[in-house]
C-alpha cells in the first residue's frame, strides 16, 4: 500500500537518537496506528510494547532480533516482525525509509 486515505496524522514528530530516527504517527479510523519514518546511518536499539511489523521501504540495515545472536541483512521491499515487550537492534547502513505497524 503506497497511500493511506481517511487517516489522522499527528503533527508532532517522534524524534529518537538525537534526530537519527524521525517518524510521524498515522491513526486509522479503526484506531490502529502506524508510524512513517526515516533513519540516518547508525546503530539503534528500540524497545517495544505492542508487537510490530517493520516494513523497509528503501535503504539497507543489519537487524538483530530478540533471542538471536545473528545479524540479518534487510533491504528495501523487505519486512520483519518484532514481538511485544522486547528489544531489537538495527545497524543502518544507508538512509532508510520505513513504515512501522503496531499490532494489537
Automatic annotation (TrEMBL):
Name assigned to this protein: Pyrimidine/purine nucleoside phosphorylase
Function: Catalyzes the phosphorolysis of diverse nucleosides, yielding D-ribose 1-phosphate and the respective free bases. Can use uridine, adenosine, guanosine, cytidine, thymidine, inosine and xanthosine as substrates. Also catalyzes the reverse reactions.
E.C. number: 2.4.2.1, 2.4.2.2
Family annotation (Gene3D superfamilies): Jelly Rolls
Catalytic reaction annotation: cytidine + phosphate = cytosine + alpha-D-ribose 1-phosphate; a purine D-ribonucleoside + phosphate = a purine nucleobase + alpha-D-ribose 1-phosphate; uridine + phosphate = alpha-D-ribose 1-phosphate + uracil; xanthosine + phosphate = alpha-D-ribose 1-phosphate + xanthine
Pfam families in UniProt: Ppnp
Record bears the keyword Cell wall biogenesis/degradation: no
Glycosyltransferase is among the record's keywords: yes
Similarity section: Belongs to the nucleoside phosphorylase PpnP family.
Upper lineage: Bacteria, Pseudomonadati, Thermodesulfobacteriota, Desulfuromonadia, Geobacterales
Source species: Geobacter benzoatilyticus
Keywords, comma-separated and alphabetical: Glycosyltransferase, Transferase
InterPro entries linked: Ppnp, RmlC-like_jellyroll, RmlC_Cupin_sf
Amino acid at each position: 500500500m503506497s497511500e493511506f486515505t481517511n487517516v489522522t496524522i499527528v503533527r508532532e514528530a517522534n524524534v529518537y537518537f538525537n534526530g537519527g530516527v524521525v517518524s510521524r504517527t498515522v491513526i486509522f479510523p479503526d484506531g490502529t496506528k502506524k508510524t512513517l519514518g526515516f533513519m540516518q546511518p547508525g546503530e539503534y536499539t528500540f524497545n517495544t510494547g505492542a508487537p510490530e511489523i517493520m516494513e523497509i521501504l528503501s535503504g539497507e540495515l543489519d537487524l538483530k532480533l530478540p533471542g538471536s545472536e545473528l545479524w540479518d541483512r534487510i533491504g528495501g521491499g523487505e519486512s520483519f516482525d518484532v514481538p511485544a515487550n522486547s528489544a531489537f537492534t538495527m545497524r543502518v547502513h544507508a538512509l532508510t525509509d520505513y513504515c512501522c505497524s503496531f499490532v494489537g
